[in-house]
Amino acid sequence: MEYSPIRHNLHVVPSSHVKNKLFVFCIMLSLWVYMVYCCVGYCSTVPNLTYGSVKRHENDSEVDDQESSLGASRDLLNNENDLDSRGDEWGEIRGEAKALDDNAMSAFLNESESKKLPQAIIIGVKKGGTRALLEFLRLHPDIRAVGAEPHFFDRNYDKGLEWYRELMPKSSEGQLTMEKTPSYYVTKEVPARIYTMSKDTKLIVVVRDPVTRAISDYTQTRSKKPDIPSFESLTFKNMSAGLIDTTWSAVQIGMYAKHLERWLQYFPAGQLLFVSGERLISDPAGEMARVQDFLGLRRVVTEKHFHFNPAKGFPCLKRPEWNSKPHCLGKTKGRTHPNIDPEVVQRLRDFYKPFNSRFYQMTGHDFGWD
């Protein structure tokens, strides 16, 4: 048969056309895979703003102990440490999104969301239960709260409000932005600074028996610095004279009424809510009802979200729509308080009694510490 160039070309052209299509398809597929990969990588940096973040904070969340014996009580608030309080944990927030849930994903997809300055702040107190309260609140779908402590109003104020705003998670129109930094309550400059940002800011203070709080504070410090002096020697300026050293921060923080006077110079009493650290243990749902009402939120976080763990002595969190095991706040919870001389404990109680009485009067609530 005679060779025909025309016939040959008729076979070559279709083959070349198919190859070109295949080549373009491969390029498009590669680009699509790359885009999906980038999107997934970006999503992994989005903080889990609800229950998924609870597990990450197992080592740094605060829950309070309710035992009456100070010498043998368990410290359930033992990880509000210096590293956490310096605000150096912002990189850790990236790891909170390993298990994005529906709320966090919808937040990512909602283009109407933006970063806002907080409308509510947990301002104190250290070793009172602020971490526990924050994690309880983060179960609420209408709350967006940053996990690490910004320390903006006491240590980073010179960086400006825009720096502060950038630390906040994105929130939609109906959601409340929050943060917590326990040292705000005792820092003199903070009330005026928060008032300058917004005079309508809602403020939450978690308080606890000041004697138990002081021992808890000392226990945490001793866990990092075992060679520090005894609790008894730090408590007194002069032990023989029984003069309490009010310059020691562990003692000073518990003088709640003195600090509250500064806040009331800028904010009306109705703009501050005082949460009982003891009741966060014994009745977390009841305290959460008060907090949600104060914030103007639906009572979404209720008794069905808590499971009391008798072995640990404090409530664990659960999602009622899941059948998974409840998550307890903190593997490291349960430090034993040192045995404190009963006479020193009594002297501290006597010292705090007038401050407590004044605090009860100012807040309109008897916390039953005396």
Automatic annotation (TrEMBL):
It is found in: Endomembrane system; Golgi apparatus membrane. It is a single-pass type II membrane protein. The chain crosses the membrane at residues 21-37. The active site is at 127 (for sulfotransferase activity). Gene3D superfamilies: P-loop containing nucleotide triphosphate hydrolases. Pfam families: Sulfotransfer_1. Its EC number is 2.8.2.-. 3'-phosphoadenylyl sulfate binds at residues 127-131, 208, 216, 333-337. Keywords: Disulfide bond, Glycoprotein, Golgi apparatus, Membrane, Signal-anchor, Transferase, Transmembrane, Transmembrane helix. Residues 57-88 are annotated as: Disordered. One of its GO terms (molecular function) is [heparan sulfate]-glucosamine 3-sulfotransferase activity. Belongs to the sulfotransferase 1 family. This is Sulfotransferase. It comes from Zoarces viviparus (Viviparous eelpout).
